[in-house]
């Protein structure tokens, strides 16, 4: 659960790098997705790893869409993949 909260916080930090008019949409989108998956069994590491991988990949997609440097997601990558 603690790792999920760190990932969520990192995603919200990345949202702040987006253009002002798109921030509310992506902040709400991120929150809804994390809420939707809160029932995932915390002991199911495979399911959690898959969700973290998806969160990272989607974040990269959004950053690229708005031409934000991907290196901004380095901390999210470290949090998601433990590197």
From TrEMBL:
InterPro entries: Complex1_LYR_dom (IPR008011), Complex1_LYR_LYRM9 (IPR045291). It comes from the Eukaryota. Transmembrane segments: none annotated. Residues 3-57 form the Complex 1 LYR protein domain. Belongs to the complex I LYR family. LYRM9 subfamily. PANTHER family: OS01G0342800 PROTEIN. This is LYR motif-containing protein At3g19508. The gene is LOC110423739.
